Amino acid sequence: MIIYIGKRLLAIVPIILFTILITFILIHVSPVDPAEAYLTAAHIHPTEELLAQKRHEFGLDQPLLVQYGRTVVKMAQLDFGVSYVTNEPVWDEVVSKMPATAQLAVSSIFFAIIVSIPLGFLSAVYKNSVIDYVSRGLSYIGASIPQFWLGYLLVFFFSVKLDLLPVEGRGSWLHLVLPTLTLSLALIAIYTRLLRASVLEQLQEPYVMYARTRGIKGRIIMVKHVLKIAIAPVITGLGMNVGKLLTGAIIVEQVFSWPGFGRYFVDAIFNRDIPVIQCYVFLAACLFIICNLIADLVQLYMDPRISLKGRSES
């Protein structure tokens, strides 16, 4: 297990370097001049002298290979420079934004799990029953509704019409209800359908029949054997979605004015705040890789048929 984790962690290095390289290339082929973007954000008229001074200060007059090397070293030290807009260290601002994003991500994932796992499991066990039709209908609705439209719809009913929940911002747990519902509905749709299909597939496996012929109770078979193996696709989906949510649910944060990392990134794009954009891409890559690694390790624990050797060779 330790060797497997070590190999996976080492594999992160070239992926991160490649991510930094792509970001570096895109910034340099972009028509936006970082020096001009900085001066514009500071409300300073970009004269030729000031542009040359800022290019020298940012190291943009050096060879591209040297610039890339400096970028890699600084990012390895979590030094992303200073925001063009606020003139504050980018990492300090990101650290201040992450708790709000993490709170929203955890609440959405938790709510999606406690709803989708029982719903998907019961939908498969009682196939073509009322609960199965309800589950499938909810999945289709959740997968079809755009998040921004659902968010505004919830605001209209629960905030404007009924005046039960706050419209925007972050404060008490009431502010968390509408963003969580907006994010989790799509996740519930995905996880419910994944689990239902996986459970139905596992029910056709020979080990289920053998367990029944041995006289093992159906409840034990379903919970200890079928569900334990069938939940693997859901864990994989969690690994992807947790990384996505931790980098900011951009649409939902914009709709509800949630002061998280995703909204911070959107503002950086509009303001051409290049250090913030670089930081976002770097952290997004790291979070996706780490969350997928954790999901793989959980699957190894849940399903003993998955060999470490096979995983490390794939």
UniProtKB/TrEMBL annotation:
The keyword Transport applies. The lineage of its organism: Bacteria, Bacillati, Bacillota, Bacilli, Bacillales. This is Nickel import system permease protein NikB. The complex is composed of two ATP-binding proteins (NikD and NikE), two transmembrane proteins (NikB and NikC) and a solute-binding protein (NikA). Residues 98-299 form the ABC transmembrane type-1 domain. Its main location: membrane. One of its GO terms (molecular function) is nickel cation transmembrane transporter activity. InterPro entries: BPD_transp_1_N, MetI-like, MetI-like_sf, Nickel_NikB, Opp2B. Keywords: Cell membrane, Ion transport, Membrane, Nickel, Nickel transport, Transmembrane, Transmembrane helix, Transport. The chain crosses the membrane at residues 9-29, 104-126, 138-160, 172-191, 226-252, 280-302. GO terms for cellular component: plasma membrane. It is found in: Cell membrane. It is a multi-pass membrane protein. Belongs to the binding-protein-dependent transport system permease family. OppBC subfamily. CDD domains: TM_PBP2. It comes from the Bacteria.
